[in-house]
Amino acid sequence: DAGVIQSPRHEVTEMGQEVTLRCKPISGHDYLFWYRQTMMRGLELLIYFNNNVPIDDSGMPEDRFSAKMPNASFSTLKIQPSEPRDSAVYFCASSLRTGGYNSPLHFGNGTRLTVT
Amino acid sequence: SQQGEEDPQALSIQEGENATMNCSYKTSINNLQWYRQNSGRGLVHLILIRSNEREKHSGRLRVTLDTSKKSSSLLITASRAADTASYFCATDADPGTASKLTFGTGTRLQVTL
């Protein structure tokens, strides 16, 4: 299995521009998570999906952030307009919940976003 | 706020020594997981321990869980340079959903030759 695939690996953009991050989860996994990692705040859960449906987006910082999962094999996280404080590493992870317990998360290698 | 807090924040040891990292959390949990993150990479799952378990082993890893103290420890025995990484504990912050994982602040482990 190829694992969770994220693109791009690095993104440098100017303040005010739209940014779209992409994620392909592991085939067969029914949960998809978007996390953001910064030195100051650590790993923060932004939103997660179950069977392509957003379940909890309470971690999304503000309306400039949006996430979609149009099918089981693809998700996007969009920031519009981007701001310097959005600079961080954004991770996508997927999992398969079985037996009523959390299964381990499988993480992609992240997208390092720099907004200047 | 962080559900888990790791201690110490940073740890430097020599190859062959044991490394112990601790995690404290605030609310009741269904399970606790430990992850490793190498520089510039995503997190990799190491081990999961359920709330009704007290100890678990996987290779050179030993995890303990004390639900009465809301704490867990990760022991890496006979450490290697390749163990250099950051280590995070993660808990299901909302047992009602059992799907959201909240990560601690991490311990940076440096293993020197």
Give a nutshell description of this structure.
With 116 residues, chain A is mostly beta strands. Chain A contains no helices and eleven strands.
Would you write up a description of this structure?
The complex is a heterodimer of chains A (116) and B (113). Chain A has 116 residues and is mainly beta. Chain A contains no helices and eleven strands. In chain A, the strands form two sheets. In chain A, strands 2, 4, 5, 6, 9, 10 and 11 form a seven-stranded mixed sheet that branches. In chain A, strands 1-3-8-7 form a four-stranded antiparallel sheet, with no helix packed on it. The mean pLDDT of chain A is 93. Chain B is built from no helices and eleven strands. The N and C termini of chain B lie far apart (37 Å). Chain B is globular. Chain B is 0% helix and 57% strand. Classes of the chains: A mainly beta (116), B mainly beta (113). Chain A binds chain B through residues 4, 31, 33, 35, 42-43, 45, 48, 50, 55-56, 91, 93, 97, 100-102, 104-110, and chain B through 2, 30-31, 33, 35, 40-45, 48, 50, 88, 90, 92, 97-106.
